[in-house]
What we know:
Blueprint: E1 2-5, H1 20-31, E2 35-39, H2 44-47, E3 60-62, E4 67-70, E5 73-77, H3 82-94, E6 98-102, E7 107-109, H4 116-119, E8 140-145, H5 149-156, E9 161-166, E10 171-176, H6 181-187, E11 195-199, H7 205-210, E12 213-217, H8 221-224, E13 229-231, H9 235-248
Parallel strand pairs: 1-2, 1-11, 2-3, 11-12, 12-13
Antiparallel strand pairs: 3-4, 4-5, 6-7, 6-8, 8-10, 9-10
Helix pairs in contact: 1-9
Organism: Paenibacillus aceti
Protein name: Hydrolase
Keywords: Hydrolase
Amino acid sequence: MKFVFDLDGTIIFSGKPLSVSMTQVLDQLTAKGHELIFASARPIRDLLPVLPAHMHSYPLVGGNGAFVANHGRILSTIHFDDGTKESMIRLIDKYKAGYLIDSAWDYAYSGDEQHPIRRNLDPEQRAQNKPLEQLNELVKAVILHSEEPEQLLDELRQLPVVIHRHGSENILDISPTGVSKWAGLQGLGLNPREFIAFGNDANDISMFEQAQYSVCVGDHADLLKVASEQILAEEERVIQRIEEFIWSV
């Protein structure tokens, strides 16, 4: 069986790397012949530092589906078209928004240095923080704050983009049209109903809808509508549930 795991808030917590205990139970899954896939909002650049080295070659979906990687290399990226890119930059300037914007590898960051996203951004300094105008293809954008946020959201919704609003962090996570975790998983060759998914947020809905079975970690209302079951957002409980799958699947 294939198991697809979201990272933040699902199997890693507070932005910290995968714990020893979580690593051990995931290794037990693979030892039983199951395949692991990680699907995260993080770009591949920021996904790798929270995984142990032996998992870097596993199939990976990053940027909510904008990046697909396997065997240690990025297979594909999806970026905003030029018109959408220009419109987004205009809105960022109009509403004086703070942002994290990713290209295929480098990024532009204009937010507070103490923001939680900044603390988790490129911790191994694999990339460069460049001025926005120096980035070529834009793959993913996160709006950290802005003037008149509701008006900004309304205007962004007029563009051909996918927006996930994370209420707990009060950020907007923006991807090109057609990008989703399920689309990324399809890029890895997955078919509907052939995997079990673990997730915790709205960006996991697309893969939950296609999973054979799905586990919602925590209490996200929209994700619960399509989840097979719900468990507490506690590492010990997640580990326990994975252990149960080891012996039942």
